[in-house]
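In response to the reviewer comment on reproducibility (Comment 2.3), we provide here a single inverse folding case reported in full, input and output, so that an independent group could reproduce the run without further information from us. The C-alpha cells appear first.
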C-alpha cells in the first residue's frame, strides 16, 4: 500500500485523499494497523466487579472476552476456542469457568484450557499448549479498554493528563446508564473529522452555538488525544452546572485516537464510540455514564440532555452522509484545513498516517 503523508505544517497541509474514505482495502488495513494496535473501549466495568464476571465484545473483528479473576483484576482473551474456533463465552454473565458453546471445552478465567470431553486417544495434544491467547487490558473510571497489540504505549501513557483533569467529575463513581446507537452511511473517519473541530458549529449547530462561547473555543493537541473546550454561556447552564470548585463552566470534549470521545458534563459522562461497519458504513454508539446514586432531578435533566444530543447528532448525520457522497465526486480529492479551527482534524490525519505507514 502507498505511504500516506500529511504536511506537518497545518497552514500548508492538505486533507487525506478521498479514497482513504472509500476503499475497502484501506479499511482492511485500518483494522489491523489502527484498531488492532490501539487501546479500544471494550465495555463497562460495572459488569466486571466480582471474580467470575465476564463480558464479550469484538475488536477489529477479533472476538474478545474480558473476565474478572480471583484477585479482582481483569484479564482479556481471544474469545475463540482452540478446538474448532467456537465461542468460549457468549454475551455477559458470571461463571467459575468459561465453556465453549460448541463442544463444551472449558477454560479457566485465566485462559488455561481445563476440560476437553471425549478427547482421549488424541496424539501429541497437551492442554497447556492450548490456552486462550491473552490481550492487554486496562481501565479508566468505569471504562474497560483492551489492546490487541503487544507493543506500543500503556493505557496510562495514552490517557496522559485526562485522569488528572477529570478528577473533579469523579469518574470512578460513574455507572453505565443508557445506550443509543446510530448507523450512518459514511466512513468512520468522516464522523471523527466532524467531531474534531468546532468550525462547523456556527452554521451546522445553531442551538449548540448559543450554549458555548465560540470565540473562546479551543482545540488542544496531545500525543494520543485532543481536547476541545469552551466556556459555557448563560443559555448553556441548562446542561452545564457549576461544580462550585472555582473552575467555572466549561464544555469539555476529549477524543482519544482513533475512535473514542469522552464528553464531560457535571454529573455524567457521554461516551461516543465510533465503529466501522464497512468502508462507507459506521456505527456511532453513544453511552451515558451517570453518578451513582442518581440525583432526584436526574430524569428530567437526562431527558432534555438526550433530546439535545439527538438533535445535534441528526445535524451531524446529515452533514457526514452528504460529505461521504461528496468524497465520491469525480471533481474532489483533497481539501485544505482552516489554520485557526482545524488543527484537531490535521492532528488526527497525521496520527492516522503514522498508524497506517507503520
Ligand atoms: S469449538 Fe470449542 S469445544 Fe469445539
Ligand atoms: Fe457536529
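Designed residues, in position order:
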Amino acid at each position: 500500500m502507498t505511504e500516506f503523508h500529511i504536511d506537518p505544517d497545518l497552514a500548508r497541509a492538505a486533507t487525506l485523499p478521498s479514497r482513504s474514505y472509500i476503499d475497502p482495502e484501506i479499511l482492511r488495513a485500518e483494522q489491523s494497523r489502527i484498531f488492532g494496535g490501539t487501546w479500544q473501549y471494550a465495555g463497562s466495568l460495572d459488569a466486571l466487579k466480582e471474580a467470575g464476571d465476564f463480558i464479550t465484545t469484538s475488536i477489529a473483528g477479533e472476538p474478545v472476552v474480558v473476565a474478572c479473576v480471583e484477585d479482582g483484576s481483569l484479564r482479556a482473551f481471544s474469545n475463540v476456542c482452540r478446538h474448532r474456533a467456537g465461542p468460549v463465552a457468549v454475551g455477559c454473565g458470571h461463571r467459575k469457568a468459561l465453556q465453549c458453546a460448541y463442544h463444551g471445552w472449558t477454560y479457566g478465567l485465566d485462559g488455561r484450557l481445563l476440560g476437553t470431553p471425549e478427547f482421549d486417544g488424541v496424539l501429541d495434544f497437551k492442554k497447556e499448549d492450548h490456552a486462550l491467547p491473552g490481550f492487554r487490558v486496562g481501565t479508566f473510571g468505569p471504562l474497560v479498554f483492551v489492546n490487541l497489540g503487544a507493543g506500543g504505549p500503556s493505557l496510562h501513557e495514552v490517557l496522559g493528563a485526562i485522569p488528572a483533569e477529570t478528577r473533579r467529575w469523579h469518574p470512578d463513581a460513574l455507572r453505565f446508564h443508557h445506550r443509543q446507537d446510530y448507523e450512518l452511511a459514511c466512513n468512520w473517519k468522516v464522523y471523527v473529522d466532524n467531531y474534531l473541530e468546532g468550525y462547523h458549529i456556527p452554521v451546522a449547530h445553531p442551538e449548540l452555538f448559543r450554549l458555548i462561547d465560540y470565540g473562546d473555543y479551543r482545540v488542544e493537541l496531545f500525543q494520543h488525544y485532543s481536547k476541545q473546550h469552551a466556556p459555557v454561556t448563560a443559555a448553556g447552564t441548562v446542561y452545564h452546572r457549576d461544580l462550585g470548585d472555582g473552575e467555572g463552566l466549561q464544555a469539555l470534549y476529549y477524543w482519544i485516537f482513533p475512535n473514542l470521545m469522552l464528553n464531560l458534563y457535571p454529573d455524567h459522562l457521554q461516551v461516543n464510540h465510533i465503529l466501522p461497519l464497512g468502508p462507507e458504513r459506521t456505527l456511532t454508539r453513544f453511552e451515558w455514564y451517570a453518578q451513582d446514586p442518581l440525583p432526584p432531578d436526574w430524569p428530567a435533566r437526562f431527558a432534555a440532555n438526550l433530546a439535545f444530543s439527538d438533535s445535534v447528532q441528526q445535524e451531524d448525520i446529515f452533514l457526514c452522509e452528504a460529505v461521504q457522497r461528496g468524497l465520491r465526486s469525480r471533481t474532489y480529492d483533497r481539501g485544505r484545513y482552516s489554520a485557526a479551527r482545524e488543527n484537531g482534524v490535521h492532528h488526527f490525519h497525521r496520527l492516522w498516517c503514522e498508524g497506517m505507514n507503520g
